[in-house]
Amino acid sequence: MHITTLSGNRSEIGEAHGRAHAGLITHSLEVYDRLFQDFAGLDWARARREAGRFLPMIAHGFPAILEEMEGIARGAGLDFEDILTLNCRSEISLTHASGGCSAFALNRDGTQWLAQNWDWRIDQLHNVVALEISGLDAPTLISIGEAGMVAKIGMNEHGIGVCLNAIRSRTCGEGLPIHIALRKILESTDMDAAVAVASRDRVCSPAHFLIGSADGTAAGLEVHPGEPGRLTPQSGLVTHTNHFHTPTATRQVEDFPRPDSRSRLARLDSLLRERLPATGEIGEGELFAILSDHDHAPLSICRHFNPDQPAEERMETLFSVVMNLTRRRLTLRHGKPCESDESLTVQFGTE
Fold first, then answer.
1. Are strands 128-135 and 3-8 parallel, antiparallel or unpaired?
2. How many domains does the chain contain in total?
3. Is residue 90 a part of any domain in this protein?
4. d(CA 60, CA 67)
5. What percentage of residues in the chain have a pLDDT greater than 70?
6. Which residues pair with 168 in a beta bridge?
7. Distance between CA atoms of 6 and 152, rounded to whole angstroms?
8. Where is the Peptidase C45 hydrolase domain (predicted)?
9. Quick one: average pLDDT of 159-163?
10. Does 141 fall in a domain?
11. Confidence (pTM)
12. CA 77, 81, 85 angle in degrees (round to 5)?
């Protein structure tokens, strides 16, 4: 993979994104057309109408991003409604579909790490893009995500980073769609502003946002339209998979995780406590090794093809990210982290 560099005003950033990845964006629409039909019984036209109800929420909570989304559509030769639907795909599909993803924050010897595997349908593997976005009114940021979407997992020049865990639930209310909220977090200049996206703006459907900062702070936010549940580090660790477990969240939201969510979480906790030294320097290699774990395969942290699942429900690890927020360095492995140590690394200059 390579980094696609985007700069300028919102419209220019969006149009450059659309032009650079027009083919991948069109392919993403085809993937989600199939996914919406598989899980929600919606064809693309009906999904576009469903996405329309989120437009006023975005206009209220993050109006500037609409100009960028219009630019993406223009650059890719698509309708704005197509890009809106793509960026609201979680709200349309996650009432029925459940992803994977295993994420953790780790503070060790003054270094703050964030890391995760992103697990999703294999037909999105080649639609993953790495974007470096330098806007006129926001910090420069790196987002690893899906072509045509404004953000997913990443880090900005101030050392604010975010990871994502999908949550399957029938809840959907008022707030920012998940991927719009992730972009607003990535434009935050400090931890307080990042957390406020969940606590003040709110997120209209459930997810887990794992946020960290170069100053050594981290928090897991179980977001939904109400007050988010908050996980604070225990011995420097926050871990999460695909179920809610804070009382604040579980009192308000019923989720429907796959059975392996709890076993993956237990395995992640065990690996981080047993494999890493209590003190001393660690690096990206040790953390990618944890993300490559195959215990309880095929329902493991590193997920591979599982023929026992229905075809539409098979989830595999599509990429892994390790972020050293203290040094403002992000390292990406595209595909399963166990299959290659080839990686893409981006580093911002430290302040």
1. parallel
2. 1
3. no
4. 14
5. 98
6. none
7. 16
8. 107-337
9. 98
10. yes
11. 0.97
12. 110
Structure tokens at 52: 């329309």
Query: In which band, very low, low, confident or very high, does the pLDDT at 351 lie, cut at 50, 70 and 90?
Result: very low
**Number of CB atoms found within 10 A of residue 299's CB:** 19
Q: Which band of pLDDT confidence, cut at 50, 70 and 90, is reported for residue 50?
A: very high
- pLDDT, tens digit, 9 for 90 and up, residues 203-247: 999 999 999 999 999 999 999 999 999 999 999 999 999 999 999
Sheet order of strands, 128-135 included: 3-8, 128-135, 141-146, 153-156, 161-166, 207-212, 218-223, 229-231
For residue 131, CA distances in Å to 5, 36, 220 come to 6, 26, 24
End-to-end CA distance of the chain: 28
More confident residue, 313 or 6: 6
Cβ atoms of 233 and 91 within 8 Å: the answer is: no
Residue 48 lies in a domain: no
The domain that holds 243 is classified in CATH as: 3.60.60.10
The pLDDT score that the predictor gives to residue 190 is: 98
At residue 185, what are phi and psi to the nearest 5 degrees? Answer: -65, -45
In a domain, 224, yes or no: yes
Amino acid at 277: P
What range defines the domain where residue 172 resides? Answer: 98-347
Q: Which of 233, 91, 268 is nearest to 167 (CA)?
A: 91
Kindly state the average pLDDT of the residues 16-23. 98
